[in-house]
Amino acid sequence: MKRTFIALLPAALLCSSVAVVAQPVDYSKLEIKATDLGNGVHILNWQGGDSLILVGDDGVLLVDTSVAQMGDKIKAAVAKVSGKPIKLVVNTHAHADHFGANEAMANGGAVIVAHVNLRERMANGQTIAAFNQTIPPSPPAALPTITYGEAMVLHFGGDTVQLFHVRNAHTDSDTLVHFKRANVIHASGTFGGDGSYPFFDMSSGGSLAGTIAAQEKMLSLADSNTRIVPDEGDPGSTAVLRACHDALVEIRARVEKLIAEGKSEDEAVAAKPTKDLDAKWVRPGGFLSGDTYTRMAYESLKSGNASAAR
Ligand SMILES: [Zn+2]
To answer: Is the pTM of this model over 0.85?
Structure first.
């Protein structure tokens, strides 16, 4: 049987490169840190997927609802910034720390928008092999009621909010969310922030090539002042995104060369193709070591996901 990198990963609850934990999280102890990014946009940080809010005169747009257990805390964090209702929700991808509290938001009157693949994955349930995590089908009330295919524009709170689908990137359900006036982009999971390789979830349709393409899309939208919101943690700069992109392109070239030379997965790992990049992009305490990332890259490039993402 083919050996996969999956066996090397700890059981995990969340999807970022940083927050993977072997033990269940005690959500009662988690605090949400809100940071004002200007022009009505605020980031809500906790130990899982970053949420963003855009505050308008009539209501709030919320990007990513967090896990179900954190829904009340997200609502409280939003209420601290604005007394207006959460009117619109955008889910960036089909990992539970990004859509888990959808039902609570919908029950409060919010309309939920997402890529069509996200609705399908929520409706059917899914197994995320990398985390040994099974997500059951979501109740109908939690599902997005508005879905799109390639792109969509929301006009909200005086800002123009562009949604772009990027194929087979962090997952097959990713939405990049570009707040034009605020000059902020939510990267779904296609950017790990400063000092972390971005994880791509192949069991949810993600790939290395698609992650690189997603980063190129963001670079085409960004200027030197854009803040790029990662899966978890503080926003990164365009310069950091470019450096991460360049590292991934280098890794792709090196691993493709090893594959072309006929190297097995284990031989590719032994060749340490990420060695000079790991000091910058392996976060201490995270699960994405250079060896793990090499396995992911090898499996992704070998599987043909590279062409699927084009
Ligand atoms: Zn994720």
So the answer is: yes
